[in-house]
Amino acid sequence: MHEMALTESVVALVEDAARSEGFTRAKAIVLEIGMLGHVEPAAMQFCFEAISRGTVADGARLEIVRVAGQGWCLDCGKTVALAERFGPCPDCGRHHVQMTAGDELRVRELEVE
């Protein structure tokens, strides 16, 4: 379950931001998680409740926004939807697609007080 380590990193990032920006409590954290990133949002929610206890993120709302897979097809010369990593272009069927979205994990927003 790598979600535990990922969630620890998110909470550490929020604590670093609290020290550098001077806030004492995070009220909400919005995470973007790519659909092709092999991260289970329910597991992140579960881990967040346990890991955030006693930190500036304790009691914060964790909102997870899923980001669809997307890539650039070198043969078609356009952006296409991707259903899987290293998958074929849905238009031409070739595998010359460079993934441009769908594997991210980042804090998009942080609401603090």
From TrEMBL:
It holds the Pfam family HypA. The keyword Zinc applies. GO terms for biological process: protein maturation. The keyword Zinc applies. Ni(2+) binds at H2. Signal peptide: none annotated. PROSITE patterns: HYPA. Keywords: Metal-binding, Nickel, Zinc. Zn(2+) binds at C73, C76, C89, C92. It comes from the Bacteria. GO terms for molecular function: metallochaperone activity; nickel cation binding; zinc ion binding. NCBIfam families: hypA. Belongs to the HypA/HybF family. Involved in the maturation of [NiFe] hydrogenases. Required for nickel insertion into the metal center of the hydrogenase. This is Hydrogenase maturation factor HypA.
